[in-house]
Amino acid sequence: MKQHVSFVGALHVGFGILGLLGALAIYLMLRFAYGYVEHDPIASQILPFVGNSISLVIIFFSSLGIIGGIGLFTYRPWARILVLIVSAINCLNVPVGTAKGVYSIWVLMQRETIDMFEPGERTS
């Protein structure tokens, strides 16, 4: 089960990094598009708000995934809970997020995995 936990941690760190890169790309693309709509007052107000909002939401959830994934490598009990929450939210991201979320929840809810995250049972 240790391999599964390590794989879930790697999945969340990897997808978290991809999410941060995606947030940066969205921010830069909408910032670039802003140059084309400067003459439109409504679009010039809405576009930066939308770009910043979407980027910040993606950065927030990607950061949670990275932090939780790193915590899984060291078998921290809080990391298991954090990744369960992030995985439940990822289930809404069809189809890849759903597969990642269901697999992560399955791994982290196994009795053997729960025992590994008990404070007295920590083994590296």
Describe this entry's structure for a reader.
It is a single chain. Helix 1 packs antiparallel against helix 2 and helix 2 packs across helix 3. The chain is elongated. The protein has one domain. It is mostly helical and 124 residues long. The longest helix has 33 residues. Helix content is 80%, strand content 0%. The relative contact order is 0.16. It has 5 helices and no strands.
What topology emerges from the helices and strands here?
Elements lengths: L1 H33 L6 H33 L3 H14 L5 H13 L2 H6 L8
Helix pairs in contact: 1-2, 1-4, 2-3, 3-4
- The secondary structure category is mainly alpha
Span from first to last CA? 12 Å
As for the number of domains, it is 1
What proportion strand? under 5%
Give the low-pLDDT segments: none
Percent helix: over 70%
Rounded average pLDDT: 91
**H/E order of the elements?**
HHHHH
